[in-house]
Write a structure and sequence with these properties.
It is an enzyme of class 7 (translocase). Keywords: ATP-binding, Cell membrane, Membrane, Nucleotide-binding, Translocase, Transport. Pfam families: ABC_tran, TOBE_2. It comes from Photobacterium aquae. Helix content is about 25%, strand content about 35%. It has helices at about 40-50, 90-100, 105-120, 135-150, 165-185, 195-200, 220-225, 230-235, and strands at about 5-15, 15-25, 30-35, 55-60, 65, 75-80, 155-160, 185-190, 205-210, 210-215, 240-250, 250-255, 260-265, 275-280, 285-290, 300-310, 310-320, 325-330, 345-350, 355. It has a 6-stranded mixed beta sheet, with helices on both faces. A 5-stranded antiparallel beta sheet has the order 13-12-11-14-20, with no helix packed on it. A hairpin with a 2-residue loop joins strand 4 (about 55-60) and strand 5 (about 65). Helix 2 packs across helix 3 (about 105-120), helix 2 (about 90-100) packs parallel to helix 4 and helix 3 (about 105-120) packs across helix 4 (about 135-150). The longest helix is centred in the middle third of the chain and has 18 residues, at about 165-185. The radius of gyration is 25 Å and the shape is elongated. The relative contact order is 0.11. It binds adenosine-5'-diphosphate and magnesium ion. Magnesium ion (MG) binds near residues 42, 43, 158 and 159.
Protein backbone atom coordinates (compact mmCIF):
# COMPACT_ATOMS: atom_id res chain seq x y z
CA UNK A 1 0.00 0.00 0.00
CA UNK A 2 1.20 3.55 -0.61
CA UNK A 3 2.76 5.23 2.42
CA UNK A 4 1.10 8.54 1.56
CA UNK A 5 -2.25 9.08 -0.10
CA UNK A 6 -3.52 12.51 -0.98
CA UNK A 7 -7.18 12.49 -2.00
CA UNK A 8 -8.85 15.52 -3.52
CA UNK A 9 -6.61 17.88 -1.57
CA UNK A 10 -7.52 21.55 -1.98
CA UNK A 11 -6.14 24.75 -0.50
CA UNK A 12 -6.90 28.41 -1.11
CA UNK A 13 -5.15 31.53 0.16
CA UNK A 14 -7.03 34.83 0.20
CA UNK A 15 -9.80 33.32 -1.92
CA UNK A 16 -7.38 32.10 -4.58
CA UNK A 17 -7.21 28.36 -5.13
CA UNK A 18 -3.60 27.21 -5.00
CA UNK A 19 -4.11 23.43 -4.85
CA UNK A 20 -7.20 22.16 -6.64
CA UNK A 21 -8.26 18.61 -5.86
CA UNK A 22 -4.83 16.99 -5.85
CA UNK A 23 -4.69 13.18 -5.94
CA UNK A 24 -1.35 11.53 -5.33
CA UNK A 25 -0.04 8.22 -4.02
CA UNK A 26 3.53 7.90 -2.81
CA UNK A 27 5.00 4.41 -2.52
CA UNK A 28 6.92 3.16 0.49
CA UNK A 29 10.66 3.74 0.09
CA UNK A 30 10.23 5.84 -3.02
CA UNK A 31 12.27 8.92 -3.92
CA UNK A 32 9.53 11.14 -5.32
CA UNK A 33 10.25 14.59 -6.66
CA UNK A 34 7.71 17.36 -7.07
CA UNK A 35 9.02 19.55 -9.86
CA UNK A 36 7.54 22.80 -11.05
CA UNK A 37 8.12 26.50 -11.53
CA UNK A 38 8.22 28.88 -8.61
CA UNK A 39 4.74 29.64 -7.25
CA UNK A 40 3.04 26.50 -8.60
CA UNK A 41 2.23 25.23 -5.10
CA UNK A 42 5.04 22.78 -4.27
CA UNK A 43 5.75 24.14 -0.80
CA UNK A 44 2.04 24.28 -0.07
CA UNK A 45 1.72 20.55 -0.85
CA UNK A 46 4.59 19.76 1.53
CA UNK A 47 3.16 22.01 4.26
CA UNK A 48 -0.21 20.26 3.93
CA UNK A 49 1.43 16.84 4.23
CA UNK A 50 3.52 17.99 7.20
CA UNK A 51 0.50 19.52 8.91
CA UNK A 52 1.74 23.14 8.92
CA UNK A 53 -1.32 24.09 6.86
CA UNK A 54 -4.85 22.75 7.05
CA UNK A 55 -6.50 21.57 3.84
CA UNK A 56 -9.80 23.20 2.84
CA UNK A 57 -10.96 19.85 1.44
CA UNK A 58 -9.63 16.37 0.88
CA UNK A 59 -7.80 13.74 2.85
CA UNK A 60 -4.21 12.97 3.82
CA UNK A 61 -3.44 9.38 4.72
CA UNK A 62 -0.01 8.45 6.06
CA UNK A 63 0.86 4.79 6.63
CA UNK A 64 -2.79 3.82 6.47
CA UNK A 65 -3.89 6.42 9.02
CA UNK A 66 -6.03 9.44 8.21
CA UNK A 67 -3.99 12.36 9.57
CA UNK A 68 -5.98 15.15 7.94
CA UNK A 69 -7.00 16.59 11.31
CA UNK A 70 -3.98 15.43 13.29
CA UNK A 71 -1.33 17.96 14.42
CA UNK A 72 2.07 18.10 12.72
CA UNK A 73 4.09 16.50 15.53
CA UNK A 74 1.97 13.33 15.42
CA UNK A 75 2.32 12.70 11.69
CA UNK A 76 5.57 10.72 11.58
CA UNK A 77 6.88 13.13 8.96
CA UNK A 78 9.91 15.44 9.13
CA UNK A 79 10.86 18.36 6.94
CA UNK A 80 14.21 19.73 5.76
CA UNK A 81 13.93 23.29 4.49
CA UNK A 82 16.18 25.28 2.19
CA UNK A 83 17.26 27.44 5.12
CA UNK A 84 18.16 24.71 7.55
CA UNK A 85 18.35 26.92 10.67
CA UNK A 86 20.60 24.99 13.03
CA UNK A 87 20.79 26.30 16.59
CA UNK A 88 24.04 28.31 16.45
CA UNK A 89 24.91 28.02 20.16
CA UNK A 90 24.50 24.22 20.24
CA UNK A 91 27.02 21.61 19.13
CA UNK A 92 26.32 19.41 16.12
CA UNK A 93 25.49 16.58 18.54
CA UNK A 94 23.00 18.68 20.49
CA UNK A 95 21.38 19.97 17.31
CA UNK A 96 20.70 16.41 16.18
CA UNK A 97 19.68 15.29 19.69
CA UNK A 98 17.27 18.21 20.14
CA UNK A 99 14.14 16.50 18.79
CA UNK A 100 14.77 13.30 20.74
CA UNK A 101 15.20 15.27 23.99
CA UNK A 102 11.95 17.11 23.27
CA UNK A 103 10.30 13.71 22.94
CA UNK A 104 11.83 12.73 26.30
CA UNK A 105 13.79 9.84 24.87
CA UNK A 106 16.16 8.37 27.48
CA UNK A 107 19.64 9.97 27.34
CA UNK A 108 21.27 6.50 27.13
CA UNK A 109 19.34 5.88 23.92
CA UNK A 110 19.97 9.33 22.47
CA UNK A 111 23.76 8.91 22.28
CA UNK A 112 23.84 5.89 19.92
CA UNK A 113 21.01 7.20 17.78
CA UNK A 114 22.57 10.62 17.26
CA UNK A 115 25.95 9.09 16.45
CA UNK A 116 24.34 6.68 14.00
CA UNK A 117 22.58 9.57 12.23
CA UNK A 118 25.84 11.56 12.12
CA UNK A 119 27.70 8.56 10.70
CA UNK A 120 25.08 8.33 7.97
CA UNK A 121 25.99 11.82 6.80
CA UNK A 122 29.70 11.26 7.55
CA UNK A 123 29.85 13.86 10.27
CA UNK A 124 30.36 11.71 13.38
CA UNK A 125 33.81 13.28 13.89
CA UNK A 126 32.18 16.72 13.93
CA UNK A 127 29.79 15.99 16.81
CA UNK A 128 31.47 18.40 19.29
CA UNK A 129 31.68 21.32 16.83
CA UNK A 130 29.44 24.34 16.53
CA UNK A 131 27.58 25.07 13.25
CA UNK A 132 29.78 28.09 12.39
CA UNK A 133 32.80 25.76 12.31
CA UNK A 134 31.23 23.78 9.45
CA UNK A 135 30.92 24.46 5.73
CA UNK A 136 27.50 25.11 4.16
CA UNK A 137 27.32 21.56 2.87
CA UNK A 138 28.22 20.10 6.27
CA UNK A 139 25.56 22.25 7.93
CA UNK A 140 23.02 20.98 5.43
CA UNK A 141 24.05 17.41 6.30
CA UNK A 142 23.52 18.14 10.01
CA UNK A 143 20.02 19.34 9.14
CA UNK A 144 19.41 16.05 7.34
CA UNK A 145 20.80 14.00 10.25
CA UNK A 146 18.50 15.97 12.57
CA UNK A 147 15.53 15.13 10.34
CA UNK A 148 16.22 11.38 10.11
CA UNK A 149 17.32 10.71 13.71
CA UNK A 150 13.82 9.90 14.91
CA UNK A 151 13.29 7.55 11.94
CA UNK A 152 10.29 9.23 10.34
CA UNK A 153 8.18 7.28 7.86
CA UNK A 154 8.55 10.12 5.37
CA UNK A 155 11.07 12.90 4.89
CA UNK A 156 9.96 16.07 3.12
CA UNK A 157 12.71 18.13 1.53
CA UNK A 158 11.82 21.60 0.30
CA UNK A 159 14.47 22.93 -2.12
CA UNK A 160 16.94 21.53 0.41
CA UNK A 161 19.95 21.82 -1.89
CA UNK A 162 19.08 25.06 -3.66
CA UNK A 163 21.17 27.29 -1.39
CA UNK A 164 24.37 25.33 -2.06
CA UNK A 165 26.78 26.29 -4.81
CA UNK A 166 26.80 24.24 -8.01
CA UNK A 167 29.61 21.79 -7.25
CA UNK A 168 28.51 21.06 -3.71
CA UNK A 169 24.92 20.68 -4.88
CA UNK A 170 25.96 18.03 -7.42
CA UNK A 171 27.84 16.15 -4.70
CA UNK A 172 24.97 16.41 -2.22
CA UNK A 173 22.53 15.12 -4.84
CA UNK A 174 24.48 11.87 -5.01
CA UNK A 175 24.92 11.65 -1.22
CA UNK A 176 21.26 12.30 -0.55
CA UNK A 177 20.16 9.63 -3.00
CA UNK A 178 22.58 7.13 -1.40
CA UNK A 179 21.37 8.06 2.07
CA UNK A 180 17.77 7.57 1.04
CA UNK A 181 18.55 4.08 -0.27
CA UNK A 182 20.41 3.19 2.92
CA UNK A 183 17.65 4.46 5.21
CA UNK A 184 14.77 3.10 3.17
CA UNK A 185 12.77 6.19 4.17
CA UNK A 186 10.30 7.65 1.65
CA UNK A 187 11.57 11.00 0.41
CA UNK A 188 9.37 13.68 -1.10
CA UNK A 189 11.78 16.14 -2.60
CA UNK A 190 10.71 19.50 -3.97
CA UNK A 191 12.74 21.36 -6.55
CA UNK A 192 12.36 23.77 -9.47
CA UNK A 193 15.60 22.39 -10.98
CA UNK A 194 14.83 19.89 -13.73
CA UNK A 195 18.34 18.44 -13.86
CA UNK A 196 18.25 17.79 -10.12
CA UNK A 197 14.86 16.08 -10.48
CA UNK A 198 16.01 13.89 -13.36
CA UNK A 199 19.18 12.73 -11.64
CA UNK A 200 17.76 11.91 -8.20
CA UNK A 201 14.23 10.61 -8.53
CA UNK A 202 12.49 7.27 -8.87
CA UNK A 203 9.43 9.21 -9.95
CA UNK A 204 8.71 12.82 -10.85
CA UNK A 205 5.48 14.77 -10.51
CA UNK A 206 5.50 17.83 -12.76
CA UNK A 207 3.27 20.53 -11.29
CA UNK A 208 1.80 23.68 -12.78
CA UNK A 209 -0.63 26.03 -11.02
CA UNK A 210 -1.53 23.44 -8.40
CA UNK A 211 -2.21 20.64 -10.88
CA UNK A 212 -0.22 17.58 -11.88
CA UNK A 213 0.79 17.85 -15.54
CA UNK A 214 2.66 14.55 -15.63
CA UNK A 215 3.54 11.70 -13.30
CA UNK A 216 6.28 9.38 -14.47
CA UNK A 217 9.85 8.12 -14.32
CA UNK A 218 12.62 10.58 -15.20
CA UNK A 219 12.97 8.91 -18.60
CA UNK A 220 9.26 9.08 -19.36
CA UNK A 221 9.13 12.73 -18.40
CA UNK A 222 12.12 13.60 -20.54
CA UNK A 223 11.50 11.36 -23.54
CA UNK A 224 7.71 11.33 -23.63
CA UNK A 225 6.53 14.62 -22.14
CA UNK A 226 2.75 14.68 -21.81
CA UNK A 227 2.41 18.18 -23.23
CA UNK A 228 4.25 21.30 -24.32
CA UNK A 229 4.48 22.69 -20.82
CA UNK A 230 6.33 19.62 -19.55
CA UNK A 231 8.48 19.42 -22.68
CA UNK A 232 9.53 23.06 -22.35
CA UNK A 233 10.07 22.83 -18.62
CA UNK A 234 12.34 19.79 -18.85
CA UNK A 235 15.33 20.72 -20.94
CA UNK A 236 15.65 22.42 -24.29
CA UNK A 237 13.32 21.54 -27.13
CA UNK A 238 12.52 22.42 -30.68
CA UNK A 239 8.81 22.62 -31.47
CA UNK A 240 7.54 22.36 -35.04
CA UNK A 241 4.13 22.48 -36.66
CA UNK A 242 3.36 19.29 -38.50
CA UNK A 243 0.51 17.62 -40.37
CA UNK A 244 -0.26 13.94 -39.83
CA UNK A 245 -0.15 11.85 -43.02
CA UNK A 246 -0.89 8.35 -41.79
CA UNK A 247 -0.53 6.05 -38.82
CA UNK A 248 2.19 3.42 -39.21
CA UNK A 249 1.60 1.43 -36.03
CA UNK A 250 0.52 1.87 -32.40
CA UNK A 251 3.34 4.20 -31.54
CA UNK A 252 4.33 5.88 -34.80
CA UNK A 253 2.80 8.14 -37.42
CA UNK A 254 4.11 9.58 -40.65
CA UNK A 255 3.84 13.36 -40.76
CA UNK A 256 4.86 16.32 -42.83
CA UNK A 257 7.24 18.54 -40.88
CA UNK A 258 8.39 21.71 -42.59
CA UNK A 259 7.74 20.14 -45.98
CA UNK A 260 9.54 16.93 -45.23
CA UNK A 261 8.17 13.51 -44.31
CA UNK A 262 9.20 12.26 -40.91
CA UNK A 263 8.37 9.32 -38.73
CA UNK A 264 7.03 10.53 -35.42
CA UNK A 265 6.55 8.85 -32.09
CA UNK A 266 2.89 9.27 -31.19
CA UNK A 267 0.54 7.30 -28.99
CA UNK A 268 -2.15 10.00 -29.01
CA UNK A 269 -5.22 9.31 -31.16
CA UNK A 270 -4.48 11.45 -34.23
CA UNK A 271 -5.85 11.16 -37.76
CA UNK A 272 -4.66 11.98 -41.26
CA UNK A 273 -4.79 15.72 -41.84
CA UNK A 274 -4.57 16.63 -38.13
CA UNK A 275 -2.31 19.55 -37.32
CA UNK A 276 -0.01 18.71 -34.43
CA UNK A 277 2.98 20.13 -32.60
CA UNK A 278 6.01 17.89 -32.59
CA UNK A 279 9.18 18.26 -30.61
CA UNK A 280 12.72 17.22 -31.11
CA UNK A 281 15.44 17.46 -28.48
CA UNK A 282 18.59 19.29 -29.59
CA UNK A 283 20.71 16.19 -28.92
CA UNK A 284 18.56 14.10 -31.30
CA UNK A 285 19.58 16.26 -34.26
CA UNK A 286 22.61 15.99 -36.51
CA UNK A 287 23.95 18.44 -39.04
CA UNK A 288 25.17 17.21 -42.39
CA UNK A 289 27.25 19.00 -44.89
CA UNK A 290 25.61 19.77 -48.21
CA UNK A 291 27.75 19.39 -51.26
CA UNK A 292 27.25 21.61 -54.26
CA UNK A 293 24.07 20.91 -56.17
CA UNK A 294 22.80 18.34 -53.67
CA UNK A 295 19.55 18.78 -51.83
CA UNK A 296 20.70 17.00 -48.72
CA UNK A 297 18.84 14.46 -46.70
CA UNK A 298 17.05 16.76 -44.28
CA UNK A 299 15.68 20.24 -43.67
CA UNK A 300 17.88 22.84 -45.26
CA UNK A 301 19.19 25.74 -43.25
CA UNK A 302 22.10 27.97 -42.38
CA UNK A 303 24.25 27.91 -39.26
CA UNK A 304 23.66 31.13 -37.34
CA UNK A 305 25.39 30.32 -34.05
CA UNK A 306 28.04 27.89 -32.91
CA UNK A 307 28.91 27.38 -29.23
CA UNK A 308 31.59 25.06 -27.87
CA UNK A 309 30.39 23.60 -24.55
CA UNK A 310 33.11 21.05 -23.83
CA UNK A 311 31.03 17.88 -24.08
CA UNK A 312 28.90 19.23 -26.89
CA UNK A 313 29.03 21.63 -29.75
CA UNK A 314 25.76 23.56 -29.91
CA UNK A 315 24.37 25.30 -32.95
CA UNK A 316 21.42 27.38 -33.96
CA UNK A 317 20.33 26.69 -37.52
CA UNK A 318 17.89 28.93 -39.36
CA UNK A 319 15.72 26.94 -41.77
CA UNK A 320 14.67 28.39 -45.10
CA UNK A 321 11.19 28.81 -43.62
CA UNK A 322 12.66 31.10 -40.95
CA UNK A 323 12.30 28.56 -38.10
CA UNK A 324 15.28 28.38 -35.74
CA UNK A 325 16.51 24.93 -34.69
CA UNK A 326 18.71 24.26 -31.67
CA UNK A 327 21.22 21.47 -32.21
CA UNK A 328 23.50 19.85 -29.64
CA UNK A 329 26.10 17.42 -31.00
CA UNK A 330 28.70 15.46 -29.05
CA UNK A 331 31.99 17.18 -29.57
CA UNK A 332 34.44 15.00 -31.45
CA UNK A 333 37.40 16.80 -32.89
CA UNK A 334 38.04 14.02 -35.44
CA UNK A 335 34.62 14.62 -36.95
CA UNK A 336 35.01 16.64 -40.17
CA UNK A 337 31.62 18.30 -39.53
CA UNK A 338 33.15 20.11 -36.55
CA UNK A 339 34.49 22.57 -39.09
CA UNK A 340 31.01 23.82 -39.99
CA UNK A 341 31.24 27.53 -39.81
CA UNK A 342 28.81 30.37 -39.37
CA UNK A 343 26.63 30.98 -42.41
CA UNK A 344 27.26 27.54 -43.86
CA UNK A 345 24.42 25.71 -45.56
CA UNK A 346 23.61 22.40 -43.83
CA UNK A 347 21.03 19.67 -43.74
CA UNK A 348 19.30 19.15 -40.41
CA UNK A 349 18.70 15.44 -39.91
CA UNK A 350 17.50 13.49 -36.92
CA UNK A 351 17.85 10.20 -35.16
CA UNK A 352 14.08 9.50 -34.95
CA UNK A 353 12.40 10.32 -31.59
CA UNK A 354 10.21 13.15 -32.71
CA UNK A 355 7.41 13.32 -30.25
CA UNK A 356 3.92 14.68 -30.63
CA UNK A 357 3.09 16.99 -27.75
P1 LIG B 1 6.20 27.01 -4.73
O1 LIG B 1 6.74 26.34 -3.51
O2 LIG B 1 5.90 26.07 -5.84
O3 LIG B 1 7.07 28.14 -5.19
P2 LIG B 1 4.10 27.92 -2.94
O4 LIG B 1 3.37 26.69 -2.52
O5 LIG B 1 5.07 28.51 -1.99
O6 LIG B 1 4.78 27.67 -4.36
O7 LIG B 1 3.06 29.06 -3.29
C1 LIG B 1 2.02 28.86 -4.22
C2 LIG B 1 1.15 30.11 -4.24
O8 LIG B 1 0.49 30.23 -2.97
C3 LIG B 1 1.92 31.39 -4.42
O9 LIG B 1 1.16 32.23 -5.25
C4 LIG B 1 2.02 31.97 -3.02
O10 LIG B 1 2.09 33.36 -3.05
C5 LIG B 1 0.73 31.49 -2.39
N1 LIG B 1 0.89 31.28 -0.93
C6 LIG B 1 1.61 30.32 -0.34
N2 LIG B 1 1.52 30.37 1.00
C7 LIG B 1 0.69 31.42 1.27
C8 LIG B 1 0.19 32.02 2.49
N3 LIG B 1 0.51 31.52 3.68
N4 LIG B 1 -0.63 33.09 2.35
C9 LIG B 1 -0.97 33.58 1.15
N5 LIG B 1 -0.54 33.07 -0.02
C10 LIG B 1 0.28 32.01 0.02
MG1 LIG C 1 8.54 26.65 -2.47
Amino acid sequence: APVIQLKGLSKSFDGKQIIAGLDLNVNDGEFLTILGPSGCGKTTVLRLIAGFENADAGQIIIAGKDVTDIPAEQRNVNTVFQSYALFPHMTVFDNVAFGLRMQKVAESEIEPRVMEALRMVQLDKFAPRKPHQLSGGQQQRVAIARAVVNKPKVLLLDESLSALDYKLRKQMQIELKQLQRKLGITFIFVTHDQEEALSMSDRIIVMRSGNIEQDGSPREIYEEPANLFVARFIGEINVFDAVVKERLDESRVLANVEGRHAMIHCKLPVNSGDKVKVMLRPEDIRLEEINNGEDGNGLIGYIRERTYKGMTLDSVVELESGTSVMVSEFFNEDDPDVDHSLGQKVAVTWVESWEVV
